[in-house]
Amino acid sequence: MKTSGLLIACSCLIIGCMGKPRFPEQEKDPNFWNRWAQQTLNNAMTLQNLNKNKAKNLILFLGDGMGVPTVTAARILKGQLSGHSGEETQLEMDKFPFVSLAKVSSGTGRRDTAC
C-alpha cells in the first residue's frame, strides 16, 4: 500500500514539473489545419495517375436493408456453404472499386443501406 502511494506521489510531482504541453502557436489557428489538409490531399493526388475521362453512364446498386450486420452474415453464410469458416469469403459486391453506406430515416424507423 505504501509503495503504490509513493508511486502516485512521484507521478504527480513529475507531471506537475512538466507543466502544460506547449503547442506551436500556428496550430491554434483553424486555417492552419485547413491548409495542411489541402496540401496533404494535393500531395496524395500527385502519387497516382488519375483517370481524366468523363463517365458516360453510372450504374448504382442500392441494396435496401443491407446494413453491415446483414452483409457480414451473408458473407459468412456464403463461406460456410462452400465449406470454409466464412469470415474470409468475399461477396461480389466486395470487389466493387467504390462502396458507400447510407443511413435513412423515415417516420416508421431507421434503415441502414449499403450502396
UniProtKB/TrEMBL annotation:
The keyword Lipoprotein applies. It comes from the Eukaryota. It catalyses: a phosphate monoester + H2O = an alcohol + phosphate; AMP + H2O = adenosine + phosphate; phosphoethanolamine + H2O = ethanolamine + phosphate; diphosphate + H2O = 2 phosphate + H(+). PROSITE patterns: PROKAR_LIPOPROTEIN. It holds the Pfam family Alk_phosphatase. Keywords: Biomineralization, Glycoprotein, GPI-anchor, Lipoprotein, Membrane, Signal. It is found in: Cell membrane; Extracellular vesicle membrane. It is a lipid-anchor; GPI-anchor. Residues 1-19 form the signal peptide. Its EC number is 3.1.3.1. InterPro entries: Alkaline_phosphatase, Alkaline_phosphatase_core_sf. Gene3D superfamilies: Alkaline Phosphatase, subunit A. Transmembrane segments: none annotated. The keyword Membrane applies. Homodimer. This is Alkaline phosphatase, tissue-nonspecific isozyme. It comes from Ataeniobius toweri.
